[in-house]
Amino acid sequence: MNTRPDWLEILLHCKENVKAKIQPYLKTELAEQPVLGTGAGGDPMKPVDLAAEKAIVEVLEHHLNAFTLVSEESGVTKFGMNPAQCYVIVDPIDGTTNFIRGLPFYATSIAVSTMPLLSTVFAALVTDLFHDTTYTAIKGGGAHCDGKRIATSQLTTLEDAVIGLDLNSYKVKAIAPYISDLIERTGHVRHFGANALELCYVAEGLTEAFVDVRGKLRVTDMAAGYLILKEAGGVITSPEGKALDATLDPVQKIKFIASGNKQLHRKILGLVRLKC
Ligand code: IPD
Ligand code: CA
Fold it and tell me: Whose CA is nearest to atom 16 of ligand 1?
């Protein structure tokens, strides 16, 4: 008999295993984290990234006969006889730099999709590994934080808004002209350093928007946050206001604007005049 997997249960099990398996890598006074090579997404790979990925794969193999893993670290790996039956998109540790320095803002991000496309993601989990706070969503079932339903902010005034803005780029001079009007009009700009979690902050209404138009973020970092935000009532589009989609591939980059509500989204789009 072919029963449908209970994705919420599987994702929560993955989270528990990651939490347990990253313990030895938590910052201690002398701990060094050697670079183990380059991950599929192009960034240096640290022991904690691999330990978290291994923890997720262990749980997936326990629950599923077949799946395709799309990971920022090991790339695309097919498991079982029919690996195209689902795609599991993983950023084992989002915010590795924060983790290594002991900055309390890093997460695990896992999304599940029927096809290798962002628009077909149907289950998601992002867990704040420092504060032990977990965001989940199943398509059509709303978004939750530690089991409680969450909804985005309905604030529409930029002057009062808290907006996350990722300017972490060597090409900031090229981006700055497009986002300077937004910065000038926004009351409070933030960047915490783990974009999966920053999308969940918009989903929960802790911030009003999150903007990443660098063209540097991998789709693996935001696939889960994308569904959680949408299920919480938020809006996420390309910087030109088009519906967002991308191939779920570890090297695929993406630019987006995510907002708590349509009215604020229109205001931000009007200010971020990016021609991609
Ligand atoms: C990073 C974080 C960070 C963003 C970087 C990402 P990683 O993810 O999301 O906020 O500025 O572009 O690479 O590399 O720690 O998974
Ligand atoms: Ca990562």
Answer: 94
